[in-house]
# Entry
Amino acid sequence: MRIKSILSNYATFQEKALNNRFFKHKDIIPLINQLPAEFTIEQLGSSVKGKSINAVKWGNGKTRVMLWSQMHGDEATGTMALFDLFNFLQQCHEMVRLINEKCELLIIPMVNPDGAAMFTRRNAQQIDINRDFIQTVSPEGKILKQARDNFEPHFGFNLHDQITLWSVDETLKPATLSYLAPAFNKALAVNDVRKNAMLVIADMFNELNQVLPNQIGLFNDEYEPRAFGDNFQNAGTSTILIEAGGYKDDPEKQHIRKYYFGSILSGLLSISSKSYEQQHTENYFAIPQNNKQIFHLMINNLILDGIKVSVGINYEEYPNSDGRSTYKTYSIQDIGDLSFCDAYKVYDAHNCQLRGNILFNKTADFELLTEGQIILAFKNGELVQKH
# Structure
């Protein structure tokens, strides 16, 4: 319940300068430079295109915790939450004092500033940094690896975004957040390092599920030998993955960031107080799994080719050339019995008229009308009208 109380005052420390997903390196540098003296700032290196990659140190404790965000340039929620955290750590609060006394934090916001500039996953070399641990050809990957080697953190927070189509098993709700203690080998073994990450996550879930019930899932733990989280786990850093998914009517993830911040803070409090040592791995494995039982849009009770069906429609999101907005292309992803599914927006086509064709795995290009009024319309994959 500690986190619920903190989040009730979230507006007092939310970083207002970051209010959508499309902020750039030049937007965060002033925020870093204005941090007070108790935050130590160090430039770790530069991106492919020469943008600085910075680390911020804070805290006087013996337990070292490293947090890094935006390895993928279009995954900005973790970065927003870290700047909210910077603001929170400047408040006079018993939780701030506890973390300061017990932990030393090394925070690297925006590992991939070139990707953020283009709002793309990959860096300027077209490399997925989070698949570059082994060869480490990207300067950003080298910087991140060196930072961990130098700091030798006991715990790590690996901050990402996932697609908005993940749902929570048996809830038919979006996976607004997902957690994972990444595997360190193909056998998915559990040693003390990974176990500690699991126990912290169990604490996080216990806190956040009270404010975000049935919308937190456990991410797939398939081993990825090229990923930083898996390898940091193997190197002795208990690594916690947080993924931001979807939340209804929150395209810029301004609501999600509050819960994301809450997850980070809950994890830091668990580590600082060592409450995770009283947890059990069964509670980690009891977190419901991610699955895919939601669509962006769904139409029920539609008569198509003489039979009544449901239609699931999803979009793919692409960055515009300025890197400050996106466009969406919608396509038909399923037709038939979707009674076990849900969507961010559901339409009932009973007594509706269909104008155009609905074809599986094809671009959406049709109109749905009721009493002569269009309630949903697509043109060559573009959503042109909805109610």
